[in-house]
Amino acid sequence: MPKLVILETPFKGDIKKNIEYARKCMRDCFMRGEFPFASHLLYTQEGILDDSVPEERALGIEAGLVWAKFTETTIVYTDLGISEGMKQGIERAKKEGRAIEYRTLKH
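Structure (tokenized):
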């Protein structure tokens, strides 16, 4: 079975650029034989959660962190830096003993 991974990339800020980047990172995971999950690409879609509302942003981050428990590895793509939301994901992975792998798309 392919490895299940949680994807950590920036979202807040230049949202359009960050979504495009996250999609490329997700594709990179698939091309490596992994099955990625990126809550920030799912929960932030129109009509689900509003990332500009702090309570909804926190809810989305927490939901993503809960889903991470079902994955083997947290994959952190660093080309655009590490955001506060990504730091939360990294800290949760450490706390739960999940492997963390840092990557760039610039191989």
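The CA atoms of residues 11 and 19 lie 7 Å apart. DSSP finds four helices and four strands in the chain.
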